[in-house]
Design a protein that fits this description.
This protein is an all-alpha fold and about 500 residues long. It contains 19 helices and 2 strands. It starts with a helix and ends in a 6-residue tail after the last helix. Keywords: Membrane, Transmembrane, Transmembrane helix.
Amino acid sequence: MDSLSSLLDGFGTALSPVNLLWAAVGVLLGTAIGVLPGIGPAMAVALLLPVTYGLDPTAAFIMFAGIYYGGMFGGSTTSILLNTPGETAAVVAAMEGHPMARSGRGAQALAAAAIGHFAGGMIGTCLLVFLAPTVADLAVDIGAPDYFAIMVLAFIAVTSVLGSSRIRGFASLLIGLTIGLVGLDQMTGQQRLTFGSLQLADGIDVVIVAVGLFAIGEALWVALHLRRRPDEPIPVGRPWLGKAELRRTWKPWLRGPAIGFPFGAIPAGGAEIPTFLSYVTEKRLSKHRDEFGKGAIEGVAGPESAASASAAGTLVSMLTLGLPTTAVAAVMLAAFQQYGIQPGPLLFEREPDLVWGLIASLFIAMVMLLVLNLPLAPVWAKLLRIPRPYLYAGILFFAAVGAYAVGGEPLDLVILLIIGLLGLLMRRYGLPVLPAVIGVILGPGAEQQLRRALQISDGSMSGLVDTPFSVTVYVVIALILCWPLAKRLVPGRVR
């Protein structure tokens, strides 16, 4: 009851005209920024930090939260329509959303994503209100072996369900892990695969890799085949979800937060892991498995709901522990410190108006985003009617601008082109793109957690399985790997 009364007080703060205005500014900026590949919410919040020096802290953080949620909404728009993720959390949306858009169901895919974000955000924020202390306690108890096991699960799960074969999936993952090795060794400081270039010492930014593999690779692939296939306009489709689509999406909308919220609260890759696992889960549970890869709406609804709930989970560890688990949370933590406020266990006691006003504004932001994005779904879908030469020329331009904005180095554009050519070759030889992106995102973290676990156990491999949590995860991994073999050995009993 204390949480509910505090939340009601927070709504009193968030519903003031000035704070409502800043919430609206945040969601509009976040949606617009999320659409641009490479310029994600973390960069937006960082750029706006100097601008908010004169603002009241509560107003500033309400705006930052709107940007965070709006960026996730906007990131799925270009991911679905143009196969160009604006945010790494929107990578999975391209797997099923883009085939839906190419078949004239872009508006339905956007509607499923928007409602998924709304459902996931609402459920995740409710869990934030009631379960923040419990989830924070669990996050504290998870150690290096557990983090490594979670990341291995993500690797195995995504490579087992994507592509025409597991070998191609693991080959793609190996490419991503190799790209993730570029830069300085985090433990020893030695350079790896930098070829003597100081600019590569910091590694290759995951945004450049995602934009290169998806946007540049897709644009080059379409350019190679443009003359063979007539450039026919793609129908926009009806701007609502039918009864059959609602029956297929309501369960993924509800399952997404169960996966996304816990993962958002622990430092294991932000929204990337839960969206991948949600996709795998929906493919396993769906009665329309044959549609996956061709435009299954469950593959959009579940991951997008998980991504939004993960954003709420991220705020749990940031507010209660002062532990940032994503780039956006890290920038927001810097903003807290800028105002002389230290997130942690005492934050709820020292700054109740700010914290509960911020949490209440999340509910308001989700409603604003749903009202903004649902009517715009058919409008965004009309982007597909632009002739493909002009459309993909625009994609190449914005991809280059986004990649250059990441580091401001001309070398980033060269790397973008090289990775784009790699994406073209992967499409040519049937290698799925997503495992490579997973490898880049999670590879460095997995290596760091592996080495920490081995250091703790003095090099003994038993240190990787010395907790009940890690053992449970490895059992799940074994089941995923052995399930196809079990189906072959006992075809009449295992279905």
